[in-house]
Amino acid sequence: MKIAAVIPAYNEQDSIRHVVEGIRRIAKESGIPLIPVVVNDLSTDHTAEVAENAGAVVLSLPVNLGIGGAVQTGFIYARAHGFTHAIQVDGDGQHPPEAIPAMLRKMEEEELDVVIGSRFISGEGFQSSALRRLGIRWFSALARLLTGYRVLDSTSGFRLVNLRTLNILAEEYPDDYPEPEAISIYARHGLKVAEIPVIMNVRRGGESSINSLNAFYYMWKVTLGVVFSHLRKH
Question: pTM for the complete prediction?
Answer without folding.
Answer: 0.90
